[in-house]
Design a protein that fits this description.
This protein is of the alpha/beta class. It is built from 37 helices and 34 strands.
Length: 954
């Protein structure tokens, strides 16, 4: 390989040395090369050098063929030269072609750009023309604009641009017509036509405004006659508000606005007396009719005995076992639902656990007097042992149910309680744990009786008749309330007697108590329906059913005092609060649609505020809107204009994962505080004024704080009563233990001119309302959720724990979102609502510092009762009744050696004082009653429970 390369290189050098090959090729190859082969020395210096080198590497044959080698080398060189020429020529041509291609491409690009400019200009002109035509359509024939856009301009104008055009137009129109300015979501809802619309309107988002403005826009701008529009609401107040807003704009030419029931009445015009309840006007005809039916059965000995057995069994039933049976839930779910169920004793107390219920029921059924959560002030806190059983005036047995053993904090507190009673020799502590109650009611009763008897507590079992005599009033009230609710639910489902019986008979998972109730309830329901037939009366539910039937039969004209109309003329039907829809309303709507399938429905509601399941509403109609109204479109209006940012965020945290969150509009954060009542310590003066009552002084401090900032305040509760003891300060006031009484009590501590700014309400009644400051008084387990034991009787109608619990969550959401800028939530650490815990997992809380909220001065007159020894030297007189005085809320005044307690003067009476538990056993006791100024109002001596006035003129 090396030789061949060396030979080639040398030959190339020689050939390169010889010039002008084109003219001398024959000479070089035929003459010069042979000469040099014979005489190498005849060559020039280069020739000699090359030939010498070649001779050294070529053999003889190769040397003699040197001319031939030169000729071949020359040919190869020529080929290389030719190839190089060809390559260079090809490159030249390629460059020329590339340049030509570029010139052609530039020319094409120029031509295309020119064409694109022409097309773009044409598109611009077409789009301008389209926009002008669409705008003219929006101005002159808005309801056709969607069709015009779809048929002619959907390829010219994109959907988002078209929607933006509509929104902009409507906003301008609203401004021109001096209507409220609306946001993009609200305007999008107003502009949607051609299919059914479901609007998801979060709390404070301007739902009613959107509804009203859409009706105005349809009538005023779109030219829809007023008798072609109908707005339906579920209650009269909402319908009146909508109508008032429309009347301000249209005068007497308003669309049809009414409740569903008013529409039904306008179609049927029943001759029968109409049964309905209107608590606002004290019209309770339906409740009285239902009560009459139930009373008839209560006077029937056979049914009275059934009701007696039912209620006794119901009070005693182990609802955890009954309700949880058949539910496939995780351990966490089971515990959560167990804690949600109220444990109500035979005596009527709401207890914290099923273990406490067993203890309370045993004591009640064995005629053992007890105090539940009697107050003791201990180490600066209001200590409330579960059960106090008196064996004498100042001794007895304390029964504590330690239900959370194993929790370090709980165990530490339990040990402190044990130590407290170890140093109080007059009392013995009896501990009960879940292990004691787990074997079941009968075994627990047996073991508990043995333990109590060892403590010298006499157990005298009451007979069934004696138990019934003691609970029958409350039992009958509960039975009546539950029965009325059940009958009304059946009416909402449009059931007749046979359908209800079939529904009941189809269930094979009913508990004995459920079967007992349903056996009676089906007779009551049948009797109620018979009463309607026989008396010529009708209720609203029956009226709705009859209206649906009449419409199906062709009756479409409805007539009211305000005018008449025809359902066949209606083109646009609005439904307010659609989350409250039910089977009964769907039947009416479906009947209307059978006669007029051209109606477009616009349904506004908030699934987060669906709280009327107890009245027959069912959220399934909201969730499955598309299956009932097709084709349909779902639109949100989610901006909360009512509440500060932190309040909106709090509501979103509660409802996380359950739908589109609300968006805060206001930039201010507002105030959200969580007040832990376990951390609240009343002052000595507060203890005197509110003996044993922690909630009132706590609320007073909060109310005082925000009254001083010129805010109105509402106290919201889950029920009409507070889940804590309230000291109303008099027998008359104690009989009024609802929210109104509590409101009066709170107001009494403030000047007359500001009292109207303090209100109270249940969360249910406050839906749709708002206030500057909201205090949610009872964010505790026994209020949120409140799952009453009687719910189990409606399982046959479709209720279940999950459904009820989620409705309770929504009710809590309603309570939280009533606040404008200040929200205070009161709870207890040991009994915090699980809903509040859910929020805490996603949303940080600012804790309320009670030290920053000073006690308030009282404005209303109060009296102070002082109880002391009639004979100063006889210290044993008051000592003998000290425990009863403590239990009644009296506090020891060491300076004056008396026990004292403060009462509101309003409602106070001497007779109520004489009925106190300490008064009947008092002996050698002096009682003084003084007013706010320290003046003596009354002075009495008590001898063996008998009172004698010590006044000079007595």
């Amino acid at each position: 390989m090396a030789k061949n390369q060396a030979t080639s290189d040398l030959l190339s050098k020689l050939i390169s040395h010889w010039c002008s090959w084109d003219q001398h090729e024959s000479f070089y190859l035929e003459t010069l090369a042979p000469q040099l082969l014979e005489k190498p020395e005849s060559g020039d210096e280069v020739e000699r050098e090359v030939l010498k080198a070649l001779r050294e590497i070529l053999n003889d044959d190769e040397w003699t063929s040197l001319p031939s080698l030169i000729r071949e080398q020359r040919k190869g060189k020529l080929r290389e030269i030719e190839q190089e020429k060809l390559r260079l020529e090809a490159e030249r041509k390629a460059r020329e072609e590339e340049l030509e291609q570029k010139r052609r491409e530039q020319l094409i690009a120029q031509q295309r750009a020119k064409q694109a400019r022409i097309e773009e200009e044409q598109k611009r002109r077409d789009k301008e023309l389209a926009l002008d035509e669409i705008m003219e359509c929006l101005k002159g024939d808005f309801l056709r604009s969607d069709k015009v856009y779809k048929d002619r301009y959907s390829e010219i104008i994109c959907p988002d641009e078209y929607e933006s055009l509509k929104v902009g137009f409507i906003k301008s129109w609203l401004k021109e017509n001096e209507l409220p300015a609306l946001d993009d979501e609200q305007v999008a809802a107003i502009s949607a036509y051609g299919r059914h619309v479901q609007v998801i309107a979060r709390a404070g988002s301007g739902k009613t405004t959107t509804l009203v403005v859409r009706a105005i826009f349809l009538q005023k701008h779109c030219g829809v006659p007023s008798n072609h529009i109908m707005l339906l609401a579920f209650n009269r107040k909402a319908a009146e508000e909508i109508n008032e807003r429309l009347e301000k704009y249209f005068g007497n030419n308003t669309p049809h606005v009414m409740t569903f029931h008013a529409l039904a009445y306008a179609i049927v015009h029943p001759e029968e007396s109409l049964l309905y309840d209107d608590p606002a006007s004290n019209h309770l005809a339906k409740s009285r009719a239902l009560q009459s039916v139930i009373d008839d059965y209560l006077h029937n000995s056979r049914f009275r005995e059934k009701i007696r057995l039912l209620m006794l069994n119901h009070f005693r039933a182990d609802w955890e076992r009954i309700i949880l049976g058949g539910y496939d839930r995780t351990k966490g779910d089971l515990i959560r639902f167990r804690r949600s169920l109220p444990n109500v004793s035979l005596r009527g107390e709401y207890l914290k656990s099923y273990g406490e219920k067993l203890i309370a029921d045993f004591l009640f059924e064995h005629d053992i007097p007890y105090k539940y959560e009697r107050n003791y002030w201990w180490n600066g806190i209001n200590y409330r042992p579960d059960f106090t059983i008196f064996q004498s005036g100042n001794s007895g047995v304390i029964v504590e149910y330690f239900g959370l053993s194993g929790d370090p904090d709980y165990d530490e507190q339990a040990e402190k309680k044990r130590d407290f009673w170890r140093h109080n020799q007059s009392w013995q502590l009896l501990e009960i744990t879940p292990r004691d109650v787990s074997p079941g009611r009968d075994q627990f009763f047996s073991s508990f009786r043995n333990v109590l008897e060892r403590y010298k507590i006499e157990c005298n079992p009451l007979t069934e008749d004696e138990i019934w005599d003691r609970v029958k009033d409350r039992a009958i009230d509960r039975f009546t309330t539950t029965s009325i609710s059940f009958i009304q639910r059946c009416r909402k489902l449009s059931l007749d007697s046979s359908q209800l019986s079939q529904l009941i008979d189809s269930r094979n998972d009913l508990s004995p108590v459920e079967n007992q109730f349903l056996g009676v309830a089906r007779h009551l329901y049948s009797a109620y329906l018979d009463r309607l037939d026989s008396t010529g009366e009708e209720d609203f539910d029956g009226l709705m059913q009859r209206a649906a039937t009449s419409i199906k039969a062709g009756q479409t004209v409805f007539e009211r005092r305000s005018g008449k109309g025809d359902l066949r003329d209606i083109r646009y039907m609005f439904i307010d609060e659609y989350q409250d829809f039910s089977d009964l309303f769907l039947r009416l709507v479906n009947a209307i649609r059978e006669r007029n399938d051209a109606i477009e429905f616009f349904c506004v509601g908030d699934d987060w505020q669906a709280i009327n399941g107890f009245a027959g509403s069912d959220l399934k109609f909201y969730v499955n809107f598309h299956s009932h109204f097709s084709p349909s479109h779902k639109l949100p209006i989610s901006t909360n204009y009512r509440s500060a940012k932190s309040i909106v965020s709090l509501g979103n945290a509660l409802m996380h994962g359950l739908g589109e969150p609300a968006k805060p509009y206001r930039p201010d954060s507002g105030t959200v505080l969580i007040g832990n009542l376990d951390k609240f310590t009343p002052t000595n003066r507060e203890n005197e004024r509110h003996s044993g009552d922690e909630i009132t002084p706590a609320v007073l401090r909060l109310v005082s704080k925000w009254l001083a900032t010129d805010r109105d305040i509402v106290l919201l509760c889950r029920k009409n009563t507070l889940p804590w003891y309230v000291d109303y300060g008099g027998e008359q006031a104690r009989r009024r233990n609802g929210l109104d009484a509590f409101c009066d009590l709170v107001r009494s501590y403030f000047p007359e001119e500001v009292r109207r700014r303090i209100t109270t309400s249940t969360a249910h009644k406050y839906k749709g309302l708002q206030n500057d400051a909201v205090i949610v008084v009872d964010a505790v387990l026994r209020s949120y959720p409140l799952i009453h034991p009687d719910w189990v009787f409606t399982r046959v109608l479709g209720d279940n724990l999950e459904k009820i619990s989620e409705e309770e969550r929504r009710l809590f959401y309603v309570a939280l979102t009533r606040a404008v800028d200040t929200l205070i939530i009161l709870t207890e650490e040991q009994s915090i609502s699980p809903f509040l815990q859910d929020i805490a997992a996603k949303h940080p809380f600012e804790r309320l510092d009670w030290d920053k909220f000073p006690p308030v001065r009282e404005e209303s007159s109060r009296l102070t009762v002082r109880v002391g020894n009639l004979v100063p030297q006889n210290n044993g007189a008051t000592y003998a009744i000290k425990d009863q005085l403590k239990a009644s809320g009296y506090r020891w005044d060491s300076a004056n050696k008396v026990w004292q307690k403060s009462f509101l003067e309003e409602g106070f009476s001497l007779e109520s004082l004489k009925e106190s538990i300490w008064a009947s056993i008092a002996n050698q006791i002096r009682v003084e009653i003084v007013d706010d100024h320290g003046s003596l109002v009354g002075e009495y001596a008590i001898h063996s429970g008998r009172w004698r006035s010590l006044e000079k003129n007595a």
